[in-house]
Amino acid sequence: MTQWIRMARVTVQNYYQYRLVDKPGWTIGWTWANAEVIWSMYGAFATQQGNCSNHMFQVPHSCKKDPVILDLTPEAAPENRTEGCCQSGLLSAWSVVPSKSFSSFEIQVGGLGKMTTVHPPVNLTLLGPGPGYTCGPVSDAEPTVSSDIGGKRKVQVFRTWKSTCTYSAFLANKSPVCCASLSSFYNPTVTSCPMCSCGCSEAKQNTSSCISPGNAHPNSRDDTDVLQCTDHNCPVRVHWHVKNNYADHWRVKLTVSNYNYKRNYSNWNILVQHPGFNQSSKAFSFNSTMLPTVGFEDEVALFWGYDSYNNELLQANHDQLGSVTTEILLEKDADSFTLSNGWAFPRKIYFNGENCQMPLPDTFPMLPNHDVGLHPPPLGFLLLLTLLSLKQLLD
């Protein structure tokens, strides 16, 4: 019986605007419809070879009915690579670095039977890196067309299939990873992250998952996260400080802190929902862009670091937290801007696509009973001071 072999290219494209696939990267799985095997792979690998006893002279890369696939690392040998591969399974958010939001690999598939009866795989799964993604059925799509001979020739593939995977925080069923704290120039009170935002630590400090500030570094070599002990117990805290109020603008300082002793966050991003972003704004130390407001009640701004400068949120150490910070200058909307009732604070904050736990509105720093000094002084008041000073000099 003739054994047909076909080369297939698999592409994983992240269309989420602000959700990335972080370490340890994506994992893809599927179930073959018939007796297919993977003879060879480029740009990725199957985690198990399976039972290949039926192939005595040439052993396939994987004979598993339900192979599990991982991306290769950037250090992969040239002969094992293919275009778009080898990022350790990391995918950037679409709005941050589109060129790094996809990953591709090639597989040589055998055991296809007759060429006219090729069926798509079923039961596609995606871990990115943990649970939460649900993939739809693999269905036919318009055959992919690529360019050849310097773009002068168009080549169409035999078949193209696609599946769409969507993320659900409910299905992920994991503890929050981020919380928000708030402060302002007009009130000395700092609103901390809510107590136990990301779970409650054990009553005794310096456990295997929590170390008090200033104590020894964690020395375990496994992948278990070790955090600095806090009331919120979150790996990441985002702090929003209302810093200045000018005649036509207002200024905010945004700081992201890493309480994890064992993990850096590469290519992080912060999404902030606030009605103040309906006016022009400028971030001084972060990249930024406005996103469509689909699914949000107010304007949303996305922030991320500059390459080779602050796109790596470093882990905490013995002396200090890892942190990145920027100031943001926002233009005022005369019809909506106010410092009253907590308006100047975000409605929602997301870190790497995960919802940060916000303090309750009744705990926000509030205006004092009198608001002297909160508004830019009027010109008449300045002239009065000047006249008084002159009169004092004349006297």
Automatic annotation (TrEMBL):
Database matches in Pfam families: COB_C, COBRA
Any one Gene Ontology cellular component term annotated for this protein: plasma membrane
Membrane-crossing segments per the record: none
Membrane topology: Lipid-anchor; GPI-anchor
GO biological process, one term: plant-type cell wall cellulose biosynthetic process
Main location group: membrane
Location in the cell: Cell membrane
Keyword annotations from UniProtKB, A to Z: Glycoprotein, GPI-anchor, Lipoprotein, Membrane, Signal
Recorded coiled-coil stretches: none
Residue span, COBRA C-terminal domain: 178-365
Family to which this protein belongs: Belongs to the COBRA family.
Protein name: Protein COBRA-like isoform X3
Organism: Punica granatum (Pomegranate)
Gene: LOC116195110
